[in-house]
Amino acid sequence: MANKLTRVLAIGASATALLGGMLIAAPAASASAQGCAGTNLRTDPALLCTTVDGESTTVKNIQASIDIKNYTCNADFKVWGTYADGRKYSDSGHAKCGLGRVWVDFKPGGGKFKDGTKVCGALVENGKVRPEHACIEIKK
Prior knowledge:
By secondary structure, this protein is α+β, with helices and mostly antiparallel strands.
């Protein structure tokens, strides 16, 4: 029960921080948005997040991360989305070991993404993308 409550509070805090950041963001400036989903890493509850940095539909950086209260290694991530011209973007990466948070930074090449597309991240386990996805909708 305590783990579920911690996870719910963490998701709520992430959503509050995201909404607060969106309300004070200046137009036409670089922006960052984050989407998170509850999951687990092996048997430990965790928070999977995808963070997108860029401006409007231009995505400069995507970070897939997992927040977990234990020291962990061997987290593999996959991210994906759709460029404005319809080409699919997809990349995979392996996180270094860490305590509290492990992540991978992805550089999608600075291309414009399709308005309304979702950029998503997920954990990869045994070569397969897990069903829990953390997504951000790209908007002009």
